[in-house]
Amino acid sequence: MTFLSKKLKRKFPIFSKKINGHPLLYLDSAATTQKPKNVIDTLTRFYLHEYGTVHRAIYSLSLEATEKYDAAREAVRDFIHAKHVEEIVFTRGTTDSINLVALSFGKRLEPGDEILVSEAEHHSNLVPWQMLAKERGIKLIFIPINDKGEIVLDEYKRRLTPQTKLVSIAHIFNTTGVVNPVKEMIQLAHEVGAKVMIDGAQAIAHTPVDVQDLHADFYAFSGHKAYGPTGVGVLYGEREILKQLTPIQGGGDMVERATLEETTYRQIPLCFEAGTPMIAEVIAFKEAIAFLKEVGIQNIQRHEQKLLEMMTVELQKIPGLKIYGTSPNKGAIISFLQEGIHHLDIGTLLDLKGVAVRSGQHCSHPSMDRFGIEGTVRVSFGLYNTVEDVKRFVALLLETISYLQRK
Ligand code: PLP
Questions:
Q1: Among residues 138, 250, 258, 309, which is most buried (max CB within 10 A)?
Q2: Is residue 363 flagged as an active site residue?
């Protein structure tokens, strides 16, 4: 099987909507995915009929909500093949997960220690480390990327030293879609005793993720980029490492025993989940995972790779169009620029035809600096995109380019 069924699109209510009088052509799944009806229905049903707090009360509504919430944690564990359920911490999203590691793991670092990140990270995987570096006198070291958008592995190896305490790297770059050799990078980092944090925001809904096979120390992702609700994310942390970290927020539900002077914390993962969590969102995220599993992550990957190939071939035929990120290892993202035309003009005119693409810096100014550009047009796929979407996009892009060239 190559392509997924076109019928999948019907499971997403938003596709019955018209945008500026045209059927929606959604090509911004790297920013956030649309939601299938089962996820929306779960959210609604929970708020209408099942709403209650978790982990605190002994009445039926709360007990049932707690059961569902805990079942979601197990579903995430299974989905990323973590060994233990307590390795799954619910957060608000990738950004929140990375900040948790920066603040908690960061407390163990000392002046002179080094953290490695690449030149092409999302701001979420750069700014928390910059903040930490300033605060604790840690050195932030940058791994260069080549003109194809790939990590330069030799340069990475040269930068790994006994001072390296952490490497934090995207599994898939959000600007170019280039897939990093994270398994190899983790192994190399472990050889010098460094821990590795993988930013899986662009990988989780597009490629199988097995944290045990990767030997990742930390792996972060967002529910909303994987067909789930906003406001829920995950931090996977290897059990022994998580146990050594101290909580960064104090509050309800993370306390074992508090006196006026002193508090002992609950075990992982609850010690990292202070306060009432995003109950409905976590429960609905379980439905998103069930949906991904039903379609099959390998099938999704094959489907999106086929769309990527088709789109790349078509875009390469357009004179003056340059693709950024030309590595053969790519996820479901294509970034490009058309000579003589501003990326924002392309995005704005495409919107008038019902097409949703990103134009800008994609929350990664350093990536743009690396390529010496101001921004790109970025097309990204989800499992609902079809061959017809690719054809329609290419036709509308050609129309847009030719209109803008005539002006
Ligand atoms: N990391 C990468 C690679 C991303 O693409 C994104 C979002 O676009 C993030 C981190 C941040 O995700 P969130 O805004 O869901 O926290």
A1: 138
A2: yes
